[in-house]
Structures are given as C-alpha cells and as structure tokens.
C-alpha cells in the first residue's frame, strides 16, 4: 500500500480527568477511503479535531507524509493539505453558491490600481467544479439556502477539493440526508478517491460506510478496537462490531422479557 | 465522469423573476409610488420645479450620506445607534477649536474626522471584544456622546450653540468640499435652454447643485462597489450571514466589523462638516434621531435587520423616499406633524414587503 499521507501514532488526549482518546493510531493513504466508526461519545469528534489541528495531542504524534508535525492552528492544517468539512459545512445560506465557494479566498482581478472581485471567474469555476462532481447548478448566483442538504454537502466538499485538499475529513456527511441525497454524497466520495484524495469518512451508519470504505476503524470509549480492510470483514460483522451489535441482541432479549411479563 | 444530476422539478425562471428577488426592489417601487402620489397631489405646487427638486434632494442627500455606510454595517449584522449623537459631537469638534481656539477650519475638520473615526473604532472594538449586542453598546455611546457634547460645549462656551463659523470658513481651502454648489455652468445652460426656470431678475432659479448631493451619490456608488465587487464586500455579507462559518474560512470578521463602525462614524462626521459649514454654526442637539432615520432608510432599502442581506442602492432609495415625503408634505400644505406617522408606517410596510421578496429569493429559484 502507498505511504499514508497523514497518520496518528498512539495519540492520547485528556480533558482534565476525562480520557477522550487513549493510544489511538489512525492513518489515511492517497486514494483511499478510511471510515471511522463509533457510537456517540466514542471519541470521533476529538479525533477529528486532533487531526484538523484544533486540539494538540497530549501524547503520541501526528505525521504528515512521514514527517512528525505539530499543527499551530486549523489554518496551518488546511495549508498542509488536510481539509475538514464539518457538519455545519461553513456555508452562508444567504450568499450565492459562487461567493460561498470562494469565501475567504476571493479571486481578484486588477483594473489599473483597483482590484476587484472576479465574479465572472467565480461563477464559472463554481459551476464547472460542481458540474465535474455531478452537481448541475441552476445558477451559480443562486443563494446556498436554495440548495438541498446533499447539494450543500457536495458544495463544501468540492470547495475543499478545488483548494488543493490532499486529505478530506468528512464529519457525518450523510447523517442528516435522505436516501437519494446520501447516495449523491457517497458518489462524490468515490470520485474524490478516484482523484487520489485520501478521505476520512466519519459515520455511525455502517451501511453508508461499507459501500464506499476501503478500511474501517472502530472507536469505542476513546480507544481503537481494531482496523479492518474491506476484504477481511463483511457488513454484518461490521454491524456487530459497532456499538449496536451485542447491545442490540441484549436489548432484544430484555424487551422480549418485558413483553412476556406484561402479557402474563 | 458521473452523469449530470438534473433535478426534474426545476423550471427555468425569467429575467423578470430574478429582478423581483433583488433587495432594492421594494424601495425602487416605493420611490415610484411616492413620486406618483406627490405628482398628483402636489404637481403644481413647485415640488417638482428645479428649486423643489434641489430642496428634497438636499434632505435626502444628508440622510443618504449616513444611510450608505449604515447599510453596510447592518448587512454585517450590527447596529450603530450612536451616529446621531456623533453628528452633534463632530459639529462641536469643528466649531469650538475654530471659534474659541483659533484653529484654521481645515485643521478642525481633520481633527473632527480623526476623533470620530477613533470613537467609531472604539465602538467596534467594544462590540467584537465583549460580544454584547451592538444595539446595547452603541445605545450607550448615543447617550455618552450627547452628554459629552453638551458638557463640553457649555463648559467652554457657556451656551449650547456655537456660531460664527461662516466668517472663519470663507477662505478656507476645505470649505468648498463641504458647502457651496457645483455644476453652476451646467445649470445656467439648462436654464438657457428652458429646462430650469428663471427668476424674475433673469437668473436661474437655482445656482448649482449643492455639494452634499454629490457626496451622497459618490458615497452610495463607493459603498455599492465595496459591497458587490470587492473582497471586503464578500466579508461583510458573510459576517452578517453566518459569522462562524466566515471565521472558519479565515474571514477576519472582527476587523471587518470594526472597519464598518469607523465608516459609520466618519459618515456622521461628514454629515456634521456639511451641516456646520452650510449653516455656519454647531448645536449640541444636531443629529438627534438621525440614527433612527438612517435605519429607516436602510430598512426601506431592503436590508435585513438580522444582517446578511441588503444593498447600498436600496438605502439610497430609502433616503430619497424620506426626502420626497418630507418636502412633499410641506409643499402640499399638509400639517408636517403627520410626517413621522407616515414614515413609520412606510417602514413597517417596507419590512413586510421586503421579507416577502426575500422569501421569494430563497424559495422560488
């Protein structure tokens, strides 16, 4: 396998007496989708924030292209090619698609001493980039508020890819979406992978993860409980390994008893 | 690459429909309505003679100078209630050094602009640092500045009004920037071809365009350019629309807002400079309630009170409506006591109309 673009080596993170992450190792290679699975409170968010430079790890190290790295800030992380698409997507609903696409990195055009926002370039680029991702915009000047949830997710991903992301961290990109919308986003993940981008796909939906994932890492109560390649594991095994598995069987039995008791 | 995903439930929309979702539509329509109304009721009273037009444009211009930067600030999601008091304060800062301390007018003007800009920056800093609503912070400045103006003026001059600026400003190099008229040659020519009426003594009924009107138009154009064509404009919309998202993308939200507070304060200083040099005096009560009039003009102009949406051109229409209604009521002979009732109602109607337009913009495309 290719060399990982970014890797965490036995990283731990504490918040006072709380152990948020303990001895977690995780990596992603170019052109690979690595799924991070875990229930609420498993430490997924802490792991993302450590990867994206919001938190510095208390123990262990982060390597980018094999070199130990300390991220000074989220902007620093972004500059080293690791882009995080959070659930809030960092979009402004009342602004146009094109303006959102270039927000904070506006293309400028010089007219003598005056440089002004190159709206034509922004419109064209946003339209083309989204079209290349399979999203046909009606109008690049339409407000983001008029897009569907899936389209917004795609816009945020397309923006990160356009600005040179080598690794995409996607935080629950499909969790709030309907079936059709989710499939659009999953397709986009596969396309990003085909472009040689490493994708870290955080989810608690095994069905979505299993379709696109190459490797799966399970996180439970702050610890890694294993990393599996797709060839080593099938969907049902993965489901069982996820928080749901054993607990659901137990719950089923318990509910069965309750039902029996109440009918008796 | 993947097949294009085309939503089959989308119909194409006409140019007209796109036009209908512009923020300034309501104000433009309102302007036409107001003009038609007064053309019918005051058509032969001189409201629309050259003199009458200049009269209402001058009223509009003064308010419009404030409204353009106030619109930008409101789009960025903040209020500045201190602009009214700032006008009084800036006027005193021009008059007292000139009249009592013998400063040349140009120096007093620069002093006034500098101090007001500084106070604007303090307003902005207080808002972004404390995280308090700007409504409260600048409400505090509103009272503090008015108190400071009154205290300083009475303390230094013993009165509440400082006059005698005219004589001092007569030969000042900056005087003609803020008072007086321009394009008198053009007006004379228009008068010769009969487009502008003549007085009994054969001179044109107006001698030129007051310079404040030029300031108004230039400021509106600059603010419009900033908003729609500059990087800063993108940041303004983002700061008001979704400040957190903007910050995450590296937009300097705090700096953007502070800059805008400086701009509104400087606009108040410009308003004061024009007023003091045209009337020749400063008064501690000048600018009272101008902050609300500016907000009314901006809101009529289609800017959203919660930020993230609006236009400077809209604010210009808002100011124009304000001027026409104020002078129109005067010319038609209606008791001017009714003016405020009219403007208040106008604003509420405008807000209803604009929220309808905005909902359209968000839905129907």
Can you describe what's shown?
The complex is a heterodimer of chains A (264) and B (365). Chain A is of the alpha/beta class and 264 residues long. Chain A has 2 domains: 6-93 and 153-231, P-loop containing nucleotide triphosphate hydrolases (Rossmann fold), CATH 3.40.50; 95-142, no CATH class. In chain A, 37% of the residues lie in helices and 27% in strands. Chain A is built from 9 helices and 12 strands. Chain A has helices spanning 44-51, 74-79, 97-101, 119-132, 149-162, 179-194, 206-212, 235-241, 244-263, and strands at residues 6-15, 18-28, 33-38, 59-64, 67-69, 82-85, 108-111, 114-117, 167-171, 198-203, 215-220, 223-229. In chain A, the strands form 3 sheets. Chain A has a 6-stranded mixed sheet, sandwiched between helices. In chain A, strands 2-1-4-5 form a 4-stranded antiparallel sheet, covered by helices on one side. In chain A, a hairpin with a 2-residue loop joins strand 1 (6-15) and strand 2. Chain B has a single domain (26-33, 47-356), classed as Orthogonal Bundle (ABC transporter involved in vitamin B12 uptake, BtuC). Chain B is built from 16 helices and 4 strands. Chain B is globular. Helix content of chain B is 70%, strand content 3%. By secondary structure, chain B is an all-alpha fold. Classes of the chains: A alpha/beta (264), B mainly alpha (365). Chain A binds chain B through residues 74-75, 86, 88-95, 99, 102-106, 108, 116-117, 119, 131-136, 138-139, 142-143, 145-146, 184, 187, 191, and chain B through 1-7, 10, 12, 225, 228-231, 233-234, 237-238, 241-242, 244-246, 248-251, 304, 308-309, 361-363, 365. Chain A: This is ABC transporter ATP-binding protein. Chain A: It comes from Mesorhizobium kowhaii. Chain A: Residues 6-246 form the ABC transporter domain.
């Amino acid at each position: 396998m290719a060399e990982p673009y970014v890797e965490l080596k036995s990283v731990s993170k504490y918040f006072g007496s709380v152990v948020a992450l303990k001895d977690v190792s995780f990596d992603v290679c170019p052109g690979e989708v690595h799924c991070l699975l875990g229930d609420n409170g498993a430490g997924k968010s802490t792991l993302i924030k450590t990867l994206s430079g919001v938190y510095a790890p208390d123990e262990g190290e982060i390597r980018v292209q094999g070199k130990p790295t300390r991220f000074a800030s989220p902007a620093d992380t972004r500059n080293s090619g690791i882009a995080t698409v959070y659930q809030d997507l960092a979009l402004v609903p009342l602004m146009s698609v094109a303006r959102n696409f270039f927000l904070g990195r506006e293309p400028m055009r010089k007219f003598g001493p005056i440089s002004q926002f190159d709206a034509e370039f922004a419109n064209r680029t946003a339209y083309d980039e989204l079209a290349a991702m399979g999203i046909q915009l009606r109008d690049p000047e339409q407000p983001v508020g008029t897009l569907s949830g899936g389209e917004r997710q795609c816009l945020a991903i397309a923006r990160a890819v356009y600005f040179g992301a080598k690794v995409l961290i996607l935080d629950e990109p499909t969790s709030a979406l309907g079936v059709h919308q989710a499939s659009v986003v999953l397709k986009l993940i596969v396309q990003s992978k085909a472009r040689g981008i490493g994708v870290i796909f955080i989810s608690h939906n095994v069905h979505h993860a299993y379709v696109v994932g190459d490797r799966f890492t399970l996180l439970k109560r702050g610890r890694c409980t294993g990393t599996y390649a797709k060839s080593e594991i099938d969907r049902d095994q993965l489901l069982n390994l996820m928080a749901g598995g054993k607990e659901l069987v137990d719950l089923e039995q318990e509910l069965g008893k309750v039902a029996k008791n109440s009918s008796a | 690459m993947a097949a294009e995903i085309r939503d089959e439930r989308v119909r194409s929309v006409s140019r007209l429909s796109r036009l209908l979702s512009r923020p300034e539509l309501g104000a433009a329509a309102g302007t036409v309505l107001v003009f038609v109304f007064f053309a019918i009721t005051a058509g032969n009273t001189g409201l629309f003679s050259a003199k009458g037009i200049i009269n209402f444009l001058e009223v509009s211009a003064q308010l419009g100078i404030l409204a353009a930067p106030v619109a930008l600030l409101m789009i960025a999601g903040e209020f500045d209630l201190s602009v009214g008091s700032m006008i009084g304060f800036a006027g005193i800062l021009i008059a007292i050094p000139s009249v009592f301390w013998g400063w040349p007018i140009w120096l007093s003007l620069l002093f006034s602009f500098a101090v007001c800009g500084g106070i604007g920056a303090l307003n902005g800093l207080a808002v972004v640092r404390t995280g308090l609503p700007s409504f409260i912070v600048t409400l505090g400045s509103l009272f503090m500045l008015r108190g400071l103006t009154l205290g300083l003026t009475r303390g230094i001059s013993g009165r509440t009004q400082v006059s005698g600026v005219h004589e001092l400003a007569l030969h000042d190099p900056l005087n003609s920037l803020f008072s007086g008229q321009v394009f008198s040659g053009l007006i004379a020519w228009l008068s010769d071809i009969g487009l502008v009426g003549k007085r009994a003594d054969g001179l044109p009924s107006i001698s030129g365009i007051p310079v404040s009107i030029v300031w108004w138009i230039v400021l509106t154009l600059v603010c419009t350019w900033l908003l729609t064509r500059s990087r800063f404009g993108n940041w303004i919309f983002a700061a008001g629309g979704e400040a957190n998202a903007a910050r995450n993308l590296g937009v300097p939200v705090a700096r953007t807002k502070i800059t805008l507070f400086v701009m509104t304060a400087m606009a108040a200083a410009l308003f004061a400079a024009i007023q003091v040099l045209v009337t020749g005096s400063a008064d501690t009560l000048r600018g009272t309630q101008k902050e609300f009039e500016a907000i009314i003009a901006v809101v009529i102009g289609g800017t959203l009170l919660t930020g993230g949406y609006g236009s400077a051109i809209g604010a210009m229409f808002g100011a124009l409506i304000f001027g026409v209604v104020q002078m129109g009521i005067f010319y038609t002979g209606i008791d001017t006591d009714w003016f405020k009732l009219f403007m208040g109602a106008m604003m509420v109607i405008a807000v209803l109309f604009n929220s309808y337009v905005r909902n359209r913009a968000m839905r129907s495309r």
